[in-house]
Design a protein that fits this description.
Strand order of the largest sheet: 2-1-3-4-5
Radius of gyration: 34 Å
Largest sheet: 5 strands, antiparallel
Helix content: 25-40%
Structural class: alpha+beta
Number of strands: 11
Order of helices and strands: HHHHHHEEEHEEEEEEEE
Number of helices: 7
Distance between the termini: 91 Å
Strand content: 5-15%
Length: 341
């Protein structure tokens, strides 16, 4: 071995025993060398952020100023401007951030040895130092033009979402608590759609083991029959009365083993329509929430958190099944004001 030959030490080897080649020589960018080019890229970044702000403004103005109505051309114009505004709002921030990172932020290569993750004071101090270093390397503190336009673009960007959510419709008021069911409303068989002459249901028509989809006979009342049907949909089942495990205060909510429960799952509102005759379980096909019909449809499996609301029923003087009242609990998924009733 020649005396000039270099002996590789353990510090120059990586974990696999290979020679560590080290970092390549740093090559400065044009923005690192020429201040006028640096200022040009700074203006480009600010321009992208301004474009984002203009896109947000375009979205808001288009949403407020153009009422699509029944005109296809206006609807197409509205959708085009809304899409263009949202695209510019997001694209401006994204491209501006990329141009900023590639041309103005510090691009020196660094290495850092892996170490155990601890929550010590030393680690926290290092984390704070990293944040300070990122602040210095990004130049956000000494580039007020970029900083201010970025803050403005980020502040405006959520406004389209806020406006869209606010315009989803008027506040529901007590509509989430009420359905078409009321005292004396007869149960009709759901044959699909909105029937002109609903077929009323007698208690003698429901045999043990059967399940019937029912709707209120007054399904045509109101201006939104389909919406009202969606809320008032009910599953009617008849089982042996001896198998029912009814609470004393709800013992008169059923009639001779006939029970009625909301068809709308209390998880996310899917239709509960799978009835297991042998186990008396109702199954939601979406997320497999399972309800026990013999025990007031309490949840026995799945993500649902509330039992299916029960519709109190009885029979009238002509033998037709009728509701005693509306559902005592709101139907469907839990919402923010469900406990205020």
């Amino acid at each position: 071995m020649s005396s000039k030959e270099h002996t590789v030490t353990s510090d120059e080897l990586d974990v696999n025993g290979h020679t560590n080649p080290g970092l390549p020589e740093h090559k400065p960018r044009l923005t690192d060398t020429y201040p006028e080019i640096e200022r040009r890229f700074e203006r480009q970044v600010a321009g992208w952020f301004v474009l984002s702000m203009l896109g947000t403004v375009l979205f808001i103005v288009s949403f407020i100023a153009i009422e699509p109505g029944e005109s296809y051309d206006l609807m197409r114009l509205s959708n085009t401007l809304l899409g263009l505004g949202a695209t510019l709002a997001l694209l401006g921030i994204g491209v501006g951030a990329i141009v900023w990172a590639k041309n103005l932020m510090n691009d020196h290569e660094v290495t850092e040895s892996r170490h155990d993750i601890h929550g010590s004071e030393e680690d926290r101090a290092i984390a704070v130092e990293i944040i300070k270093q990122a602040k210095e390397e990004s130049g956000i503190a000494r580039r007020p033009l970029i900083r201010n336009t970025l803050i403005a673009a980020l502040a405006l960007a959520p406004l389209p979402a806020v406006i869209v959510f606010r315009e989803l419709g008027p506040l529901p008021g007590d509509k989430l608590f009420n359905t078409l069911w009321d005292q004396g409303v007869r149960l009709a068989i759901d044959t699909g759609g909105i029937p002109e002459n609903p077929r009323l249901l007698r208690a003698e028509d429901v045999t043990i083991g059967s399940v019937v989809h029912v709707i209120p006979e007054n399904i045509h009342d109101g201006d939104h029959a389909l919406d009202e049907k969606a809320k008032a949909a009910v599953l009617l089942m008849r089982i042996d009365p001896d198998e029912l495990n009814e609470d004393p205060e709800r013992a008169d909510w059923s009639y001779d083993g006939i029970v009625a429960y909301s068809k709308i799952c209390t998880h996310v509102g899917c239709p509960v329509a799978l009835y297991e005759h042998q186990t008396h379980h109702l199954l939601c096909p979406c997320h497999q929430s399972t309800f026990d019909v013999t025990d007031h449809c309490k949840v026995i499996f799945g993500p649902a958190k509330r039992p299916l609301p029960q519709l109190p029923i009885t029979v009238d003087s002509e033998g037709y099944l009728v509701a005693q009242s509306d559902f005592p609990d709101p139907v469907g998924p839990t919402f923010w004001e469900i406990n205020t009733r």
